[in-house]
Specification:
single chain, elongated, 5-stranded mixed β-sheet, 23 strands, 42% helix, alpha+beta
């Protein structure tokens, strides 16, 4: 019998072979394709950066915050996004359930990927020829938020899957939810549920009710579509007292705020809807006010969330009905303390970046850490003192002769800094009036020529450190230019003749400051110096260097030396004794420098950052001021006593106020372009600078700066007990020229032998005046006779009054 195979038709044999070949080809193709896909996937896995899901907190972008000395929030540092971490236990169960119900109902069952959902999404996408459903689980979305990106690509999706398995392996479901709810975007620049709750409802997330939880849960799908509110222009017909206001920053392409917007802003300010500094920013075209209007589309999404929760038995029927019928009220939360400018926090931010850079961060890394690292930055700011300072300096009555410049900024401008000299804490700071900081000029940090306010800290502090005393005698008179090649002149051409250092400083004598400065290097007991009107043996270079070194030791960083700048040079008597420096000294550094005299001769850098904590509460920086003794407590006290005289009887009389001991110094530059008063009480040191931004001449002098200083400090000290500067041991009293003077034990006044020259010169001046009077009387008689002959009546004469003040 023949084999049955031989009985099969030849065509059937051929067809069977072809099918086998086709099957083999398909299998081979599948194997090859599978191998290629596997290779691609493995390649993607291999290229994916290594992650450590257990350190998810460090991956969360979290907004840093600045606090006052008593822990009150001053400002939330929002750059692009506002985010604030909240632990899982503080998140309402309703919000967790709402998120799971709408985003990933089998979240607690899968291990990172929901394959049932993947198949359903794939079928849907094939039917609709779209990619509407992506099948991402909460874990995959967390991977996208923390480790990949928001780009739509197969590679990113595969990487998300890869990371999601690692996340599920390392973290509990609660930890995954905590990380996701703190990293999801909720529109309007908010990231995380805590930031969203504060932004849209002005409350902590733990305080949200069911309806609010469902509304927030619906936002994450399409944040801009389902945002809880949209903004619209404000109309004059709106009830301005009952609308939610949002201030939007302007950019270069924005239209200028119209007069109508400015008027609306003024009305909002009067109603308490915006504060003074918000109004200023609107007037300066930096912000525009708009109203927040509830987005009804978000409520449609909220209803879907509630239905899913109800269908999944996560809420009762009663809860479902109540939440559906609840009216949602949008209440926009503030991200900063109202009523104060950002000048102080501007300085805090700059200092924080410096602190981080000193810890090893690059500038770019430090800036990123500042805004996105969730830092808690504590400052020594006294919020009440800051408000007081801002309120006083904003009063226009202290600045007559004002105008508005071409940039719309009111002039003259002001800067003031208040420091606790014992702790070196900067308690309050402003860098301008009718402006609010931020992108604007912070004049507290801008060097300006200090004029005579430099004298106590450059000339007299250095002189006392080199043996000078308050009773040293000098000739306050025009100096012969032919001897010195330069002759400083006193303001108002007022001169005192032979007198002591006390009177030279009290009357802000330029001539006296120049002579005392020259004598820093002189041997005051040398005959050549004792027996001549002006010292003959001295070393200019040594005196100048010592003054510069003193200023540097008390925080002045803007002295220009010829070696650094061949064009400008501050290493000379005029800049260091009269304040005509190339750049000048900032109000911040001036206040800091004067704390040396107020703090028994000890100086430490003033600080605006007390402590910095990481987002996990770890202290990464703690201020620790290092005091350095610049002069003795005795010298500091005597200099303070001299500056008390300046306030009591000299150029600073306008700074005096009842209830506190006050010491300080005025300062005026050429043509009154800058006026100063820097002074202190036993409690605080304060600098005040007034001037025009473009250096135009002022219509007032430093007595006005002293007056403003008084208004500030009187308010600051309103509830403080009266104190007097404490005199240390080691000081004795001696009379010089009939006046009681203070001296450090072991020191004696210099050049007292010249007091007799003073008496002789007075007698000579009296004889000269007598001769002049005799001649004048003869001339008057002659003139009178002529007038009587010509007019039949006597002529009258006018007296000239010389202003003895600095100005």
């Amino acid at each position: 019998m023949k084999d049955s195979k031989n009985n099969k038709p030849r065509g059937m044999i051929k067809l069977s072979s072809v099918l086998k070949i086709l099957i083999l080809i398909v299998v081979a193709a599948i194997i090859i394709l599978g191998s290629m896909v596997t290779a691609i996937v493995l390649g993607i896995f291999k290229k994916a950066p290594v992650i450590d899901p257990s350190e998810y907190r460090s991956q969360l972008s979290e907004t840093s915050r600045i606090y006052t000395n008593d822990g009150k929030l001053i400002e939330t540092l929002v750059s692009d996004e506002f985010s604030e971490f909240v632990p899982y236990e503080d998140i309402p169960k309703n919000l967790v359930n709402a998120i799971v119900a709408i985003e990933d109902e089998r979240f607690f069952e899968h291990s990172g990927v929901d394959y049932k959902r993947v198949v359903g999404a794939l079928v849907h996408d094939l039917k609709t020829r779209s990619f509407d459903q992506g099948a991402s689980t909460i874990t995959m979305q967390l991977a996208k938020n923390l480790y990949t990106s928001f780009s739509k690509s197969v590679v990113r999706k595969i990487t998300d899957v890869y990371y999601s398995y690692q996340i599920e392996e390392k973290l509990t479901k609660e930890q995954i939810l905590e990380a996701y709810l703190n990293s999801a975007g909720f529109s309007k620049g908010t990231v995380g549920v805590q930031a969203a709750a504060k932004t849209f409802f002005n409350k902590n997330v733990s305080e949200l009710d069911l309806a609010e939880c469902a509304l927030l849960a619906g936002v994450t799908n399409l944040p801009e579509k389902y945002t809880p509110y949209n903004t619209q222009e404000i109309s004059p017909d709106d009830d301005l007292g009952n609308i939610e206001i949002v201030l939007l920053p302007k950019n270069e392409n924005s239209k200028p705020n119209s007069d109508k917007i400015i008027e609306i802003a003024k009305s909002l300010n009067e109603l308490g809807q915006i504060d003074n500094f918000d109004l200023i920013q609107i007037q300066n075209d930096l912000m525009v006010p708009v109203k927040a209007v509830f987005n009804k589309t978000s409520q449609e999404r909220q209803k879907l969330v509630l239905k899913r929760m109800h269908d999944q038995n996560l809420i009762t029927n009663e809860e479902y009905e109540n939440a559906l019928n609840e009216k949602i009220d949008i209440n926009i939360g503030s991200r900063k303390e109202s009523g104060i400018s950002s000048f102080y926090t501007d300085v805090v931010q700059k200092n924080t970046i410096k602190i981080l850079m000193n810890s090893g961060y690059t500038k770019e890394e430090a800036t990123s850490k500042l805004f996105n690292g969730g830092l808690k930055i504590y400052t020594p700011m006294d919020i009440d003192m800051q408000r007081t300072l801002e309120q006083v300096v904003s009063n226009p009555k202290y600045y007559y002769g004002g105008f508005t410049d071409k940039n719309g900024v009111i002039q003259p401008q002001v800067a003031s800094v208040i420091i606790d000299q014992k702790t070196h804490e900067v308690k309050a700071l402003v860098g301008g009036r009718n402006v609010s900081g931020g992108r604007l000029l912070n004049r507290a940090l801008v060097p300006r020529q200090p004029g005579s306010s430099i004298k106590p800290i450059s000339v007299y502090l250095t002189a006392f450190n080199n043996g000078a005393t308050a009773g040293d005698v000098y000739l306050d008179s025009k100096m012969p230019e032919k001897i010195f090649g330069y002759s400083p002149r006193n303001a108002g051409n007022y001169y005192q003749g032979w007198t002591t250092i006390r009177d030279l400083l009290r009357q802000s004598s330029n001539v006296g400051a120049f002579q005392v400065a020259r004598d820093i290097s002189a041997d005051k007991d040398a005959k050549a110096n004792k027996n001549s009107t002006y010292s003959k043996v001295y070393n200019d270079e040594e005196s100048i260097n010592k003054m510069a070194d003193t200023l540097k030791s008390i925080g002045v960083s803007t002295i220009v030396e010829k070696k650094d700048n061949p064009t400008w040079n501050d290493m000379d008597y005029s800049p260091l004794t009269l304040g005509g420096m190339s750049y000048g000294i900032s109000p911040f550094e001036m206040a800091g420098a004067f704390t040396t005299l107020a703090n028994e001769g000890k100086y430490a850098n003033p600080y605006v950052v007390s402590k910095i904590e990481s987002n996990t509460g770890k202290v990464i920086y703690q201020s620790d001021p290092k005091e350095e003794e610049i002069t003795t407590p005795q010298n500091a006290y005597i200099l303070t006593d001299l500056l008390r005289d300046v306030v009591r009887r000299g150029t600073g009389r306008n700074a005096s106020f009842a209830g506190q001991d006050v010491a300080g110094k005025t300062g005026t530059t050429n043509d009154k372009k800058d006026v100063w008063f820097v002074g202190y009480t036993p409690y605080y040191t304060c600098s005040v600078w007034i001037g025009n931004d473009k250096n135009q001449k002022l219509s007032f002098g430093s007595t006005q700066a002293a007056y403003l200083w008084k208004q500030i400090m009187r308010s600051v000290h309103e509830d403080l007990d009266k104190k007097e500067f404490e005199e240390p041991d080691g000081i004795y009293t001696k009379y010089v020229n009939g006046r009681r003077e203070l001296f450090v034990d072991g020191t004696t006044p210099h050049y007292t032998n010249k007091i007799g020259w003073y008496r002789a010169s007075q007698e000579k001046q009296s004889e000269s005046k007598k001769d002049d009077n005799d001649e004048n009387n003869n001339n008057k008689k002659k003139s009178s006779n002529e007038n009587e002959n010509n007019n039949g009546k006597k002529s009258s004469s006018k007296s000239i009054i010389i202003d003895k003040n600095e100005e």
